[in-house]
Amino acid sequence: MALLNIDQLSVHFGDEGTPFKAVDRISYSVKQGEVVGIVGESGSGKSVSSLAIMGLIDYPGRVMAENLLFNGQDLTRISEKERRNLVGAEVAMIFPGPDDQPQSLLYRWLSDYGSHQGTPGAGTRKPVVSERLTC
């Protein structure tokens, strides 16, 4: 079973008569233990699709999907409290700056994530993070 299952995700802005299709029917899944990077040209919908997965698209945006499941849980039907517990702890986005190298950006994020998830002190965290990045 996939940890994240996205099927036919679309995000539209504007009125229903003439919607701007920021994301148009994308589908993918992520298995437990996989690390996924979403790449594409500027304006291709990377951030909008990620924000939709996390439930952070507000009106006038509309999120539609056949399936939007995280760990078997329908993300379109969870409460605000459940969403707050999920976003940041289980699901997150990394926004690179113009000077960031992908490896160092991921290293910093995984180190910080580990400090919140019970990974032992910084001395032991470095080898664990380095091992994850060499997959």
UniProtKB/TrEMBL annotation:
Main location group: membrane
Spell out the molecular function terms from Gene Ontology. ATP binding; ATP hydrolysis activity
Q: Boundaries of each ABC transporter domain copy?
A: 24-102
Task: Spell out the reaction equation it catalyses.
Answer: a dipeptide(out) + ATP + H2O = a dipeptide(in) + ADP + phosphate + H(+)
Please state the Enzyme Commission number of this protein: 7.4.2.9
**InterPro entries hit by this protein:** ABC_Ni/Peptide_Import, ABC_transporter-like_ATP-bd, P-loop_NTPase
List the residue ranges forming a coiled coil, or say none.
none
Could you tell me the superkingdom of the organism this chain comes from? Bacteria
Q: Does the keyword Transcription regulation apply?
A: no
Q: Where in the cell is it found?
A: Membrane
Q: What cellular component GO annotations does this protein have? A: membrane
Q: Which UniProt keywords apply?
A: ATP-binding, Cell membrane, Hydrolase, Membrane, Nucleotide-binding, Transport
What family name appears in the similarity comment? Belongs to the ABC transporter superfamily.
Q: What is this protein called?
A: ABC-type dipeptide transporter
Origin organism is Salmonella enterica subsp. arizonae
Species classification: Bacteria, Pseudomonadati, Pseudomonadota, Gammaproteobacteria, Enterobacterales
